[in-house]
Amino acid sequence: MKGATCRSRPAPRKTYPARVPIRPLEPTLRDAYARCERIARERVENFPVLSEHLAPELIPHFAAVYAFCRIADDAGDESGSPEAATARLDALERELRAAFAGSPPTPEMTALAATAAEKRLPIEPFLALLSAFRQDQTKTRYADWDDLLDYCTRSANPVGELVLRLLDEVPSRDDGRKLAKSNAICTGLQLANFWQDVARDWAKGRIYAPLADLERHGVAEDQIARGVCDDRFRTLLASLCDRTDALFAEGASLADLVAKRHRIPVLAFALAGQGLLKRIREARYDVFSKRPEISSGQAKAILARAVAARWIPALRPKVAP
């Protein structure tokens, strides 16, 4: 209608828990955080490295978030059947919503509720992670690269958003740029894990390499089932690793957008992802004979490079030649 003002519907507001003070010395809460930290240190590969460069008061908060991620991932992968996994994930969502409503039912949720209140974490990234783990129960193939990246927006990128929020790097006027760079790193880490775990994922009935790429390189599912690493498979995995490498190079400039004290963890994540891709390449893409991994010595070298890369841009992640 002429002269009418057209207003778009505002985006739904993110749900935050009521802000309450954390009292770390309270025995129940202290024990809950200690339990989360044990889970994180035992089950999350990069938590010990990350914690070395966090302010001490942040470690419990990171532990609470990482413990939730580990528990949710285990619910999706170690429940015995898709039906059982879905039921466990549904139960975990009920626990999560109860925690955000002020009634956490478990020690892990007690810690997460306190962290969410103190650091103003929204519930949506946690729900996105649960959505991705549910998808794993019904979707085991991905048509093309875009289809796979869509999965990563829920399986990986929410973790990066939560990390930025724990570091008090959002919200700010640079949210969009920071989140875009964080998404590139997190998606890269997820994809690098996929290329590392082709054999493991096949054992779970899943193939994350896009079907369009398999067809383009002449790799059949039967070849993956038999663990045959020939020239066709090497070419396939090389192309996927190259595309993943570019994501780490794209995300590395996040270090220039965050506070100086947060640059080391950001660069360490990106360099660790590229380090894993390097290990895959050094194995000549044979991820069947032995799972490529980063040794403790290599992890220390990556961390040392991250420390130096704060000041020397040439040491930051870049696309492999």
Task: Give a verbal description of the structure.
By secondary structure, the protein is mostly helical. The chain has two domains: 23-138, Orthogonal Bundle (Farnesyl Diphosphate Synthase), CATH 1.10.600.10; 142-321, Farnesyl Diphosphate Synthase, CATH 1.10.600. The protein has 15 helices and no strands. It has helices at 27-43, 47-51, 59-77, 82-100, 107-119, 124-138, 145-155, 157-166, 175-196, 198-203, 211-217, 221-226, 231-251, 263-282, 296-309. α3 (59-77) runs antiparallel to α4, α6 (124-138) packs antiparallel against α8 and α13 (231-251) runs antiparallel to α14 (263-282). It is globular. Mean pLDDT is 86; it is low at 1-11 and 18-25.
